[in-house]
Design goal:
With 406 residues, this protein is an alpha+beta fold. The chain has three domains: 12-72; 74-307, Thrombin, subunit H (Beta Barrel), CATH 2.40.10; 310-405, PDZ domain (Pdz3 Domain, Roll), CATH 2.30.42. The protein has seven helices and 23 strands. It has helices at 14-52, 84-92, 134-137, 291-304, 321-327, 343-346, 366-373; strands at 58-63, 66-71, 96-106, 112-123, 129-132, 142-146, 152-154, 156-161, 166-170, 192-197, 207-222, 225-232, 244-246, 252-260, 285-290, 310-311, 314-319, 332-338, 354-358, 361-362, 381-388, 391-398, 400-401. Strands 7-6-3-4-5-9-8 form a seven-stranded antiparallel β-sheet. Strand 3 and strand 4 (112-123) form a beta hairpin. The longest helix has 39 residues, at 14-52. The chain is elongated and about 70 Å long. The N and C termini lie far apart (107 Å). Keywords: Hydrolase, Membrane, Protease, Transmembrane, Transmembrane helix. InterPro entries: Chloro_Bact_Ser_Proteases, PDZ, PDZ_sf, Peptidase_S1_PA, Peptidase_S1_PA_chymotrypsin, Peptidase_S1C. GO terms for molecular function: serine-type endopeptidase activity.
C-alpha cells in the first residue's frame, strides 16, 4: 500500500469536505463544553480556597475527583460560620487585660528612678481576679490593670508562684467578663491556637495572632526545675506574657509565657540553656503554661496567697556517676543544707548525707525526688534512705509546707 504525501496537489471531494466540516464543528462544540465545565470547576475550587485562606484553617472533603474546601472548627455548631478567628477574638478580648507595672530602683549614684513594664492578663471570675505571669509583676511596687473597655484600675497582688511563673491580681470592678477555661489535656498537635495580648504595651493592646498547637508536653528546664509547656507558632512577643492562648471555641487552654528567639552567647536570649552559646535562628517557638496545670496553682494563690507544696526541708546537689567514681561515694543527692525545724531536721538528716532512695525508689536526680514528693501531701511521712560514713540508714521524714520556707 502506498501513501500519497503530495498534500499540496491533493484535492478533497466536495461531499467529503462537507462531511468533515460537520465533524469538525461537532468536535469544537464538545471541546468548548468540556473547557467551560473545567473552567467552572477550577474557578469554584479556586474561589473556595481563596476565601478560606483568610481564616488559615481549612479541611478538604473529597467529592470524587474534585476537592472542595470548607471552613474548619466553627465557633458554634453552625458549619457555615465563615468568621472563625474574628468570632474567637470578639468572644475572648473582653476577658483580656493589659498590665502596667512600676518598680522603684536606684542608679549608680544613688538617684532613684521608676522602671515601667507591661504584660497581659486574663479575667478569671466576676470578683475581679486576674491571672498573669509571675515575671510580669515580680518586684513591682505599683500595678495598674487596663480593661478592654478603656477602664483602668489599681491592682492588688493576691499571690505569686515563681516555680510555675504564675501570679494572681485583684481589682475592684464591676461588669467584668470572665474567660472560659478549657481542658488542655484534650489538645492535639495541629489544632488552631489564637494568642491575644498587648505586645509592646498599650499601643498595641488587643493584638491577636493565630497559628497552631505545634507540640505538647515540652519539658524545658528553669531555675526551679522542669516545666511542662504547650508549644505554638502563634506569634508571641514581649507584652504577650500572661495573656491567653485559646482554642477554636474560645476557651483558654494555656497562658502564654515565653518565646525562644535567635540565640547566641547571651543567656537572656536562651533562657533554658538549650543551645549553649551556639548561634541558632528560631522562628515560631512560643510556649504557654497548660491551663490544667495552672488551675490548682491559681486556686491556691486565691485561697492562701501562696502554693502549698510538700517539702523535706533540705537543699541537695546531684552526684553523677563520674563524681561517685572519683570520690568513692554512691550516686544520689548530696544534702548541702538542712533547714532548722524542718521534717528532715527532726529526722536527724545532716549536711553531707547522700539520699539514695525515697519510699523504696532509687533517686539520682532532683526531678526524681520532686516527682515522689508531689505525690504526697503536707504532713505525710516518707521513708528516706541515706548514705553516711559508708553506712546506709533509713529514716522517716514528715513533710512540711513549702510556705514555711518561703
Amino acid at each position: 500500500m502506498e501513501f500519497n504525501h503530495d498534500f499540496e496537489n491533493y484535492s478533497m471531494p466536495e461531499d467529503g469536505l462537507k462531511n468533515n466540516r460537520k465533524s469538525l464543528g461537532k468536535m469544537v462544540k464538545r471541546y468548548r463544553r468540556k473547557m467551560f465545565l473545567s473552567f467552572v470547576v477550577v474557578a469554584l475550587v479556586a474561589a473556595l480556597i481563596g476565601g478560606a485562606a483568610g481564616a488559615g484553617i481549612m479541611r478538604y472533603v473529597s467529592t470524587g475527583q474534585t476537592q472542595v474546601v470548607n471552613r474548619y472548627l466553627p465557633l458554634s455548631s453552625d458549619n457555615n460560620n465563615f468568621d472563625l478567628i474574628t468570632n474567637i477574638v470578639k468572644a475572648v478580648s473582653p476577658s483580656v487585660v493589659g498590665i502596667d507595672t512600676y518598680t522603684n530602683g536606684y542608679g549608680a549614684y544613688g538617684n532613684s528612678y521608676v522602671q515601667e513594664g507591661s504584660g497581659s492578663g486574663i479575667i478569671i471570675d466576676s470578683q475581679g481576679h486576674i491571672v498573669t505571669n509571675n515575671h510580669v509583676v515580680d518586684g513591682a511596687s505599683k500595678i495598674t490593670v487596663n480593661l478592654s473597655d478603656g477602664r483602668k484600675f489599681p491592682a492588688q497582688l493576691v499571690g505569686k508562684d515563681a516555680k510555675t511563673d504564675l501570679a494572681v491580681l485583684k481589682i475592684n470592678a464591676t461588669n467584668l467578663t470572665p474567660a472560659k477555661l478549657g481542658d488542655s489535656s484534650k489538645l492535639e498537635v495541629g489544632e488552631l491556637a489564637v494568642a491575644i495580648g498587648n505586645p509592646l504595651g498599650d499601643s498595641f493592646a488587643g493584638t491577636a495572632t493565630a497559628g497552631i498547637i505545634s507540640g505538647l508536653n515540652r519539658n524545658l528546664q528553669s531555675d526551679y526545675g522542669p516545666v511542662n509547656l504547650i508549644q505554638t507558632d502563634a506569634a508571641i512577643n514581649p507584652g504577650n506574657s500572661g495573656g491567653p492562648l485559646v482554642n477554636s471555641i474560645g476557651e483558654v487552654i494555656g497562658i502564654t509565657s515565653i518565646k525562644l528567639t535567635s540565640t547566641g552567647s547571651s543567656s537572656t536570649q536562651d533562657p533554658f540553656g538549650l543551645f549553649q552559646s551556639q548561634s541558632v535562628t528560631l522562628e515560631g517557638m512560643g510556649f504557654a503554661i497548660p491551663i490544667n496545670e495552672a488551675k490548682p496553682i491559681i486556686d491556691d494563690l486565691i485561697k492562701n496567697g501562696y502554693v502549698e507544696r510538700p517539702v523535706m526541708g533540705v537543699s541537695v546537689q546531684q552526684i553523677t556517676k563520674q563524681l561517685a567514681r572519683q570520690y568513692n561515694i554512691p550516686v544520689g543527692l548530696y544534702i548541702a543544707q538542712v533547714q532548722q525545724g524542718s521534717g528532715a531536721d527532726a529526722a536527724g538528716l545532716q549536711a553531707g548525707d547522700i539520699i539514695t532512695a525515697v519510699d523504696g525508689t532509687n533517686v539520682t536526680t532532683f526531678n526524681q525526688l520532686e516527682n515522689i514528693l508531689n505525690k504526697h501531701n503536707v504532713g505525710d511521712i516518707i521513708s528516706v534512705t541515706i548514705w553516711r560514713n559508708s553506712k546506709t540508714i533509713t529514716v522517716n521524714v514528715k513533710l512540711m509546707s513549702s510556705s514555711s520556707v518561703q
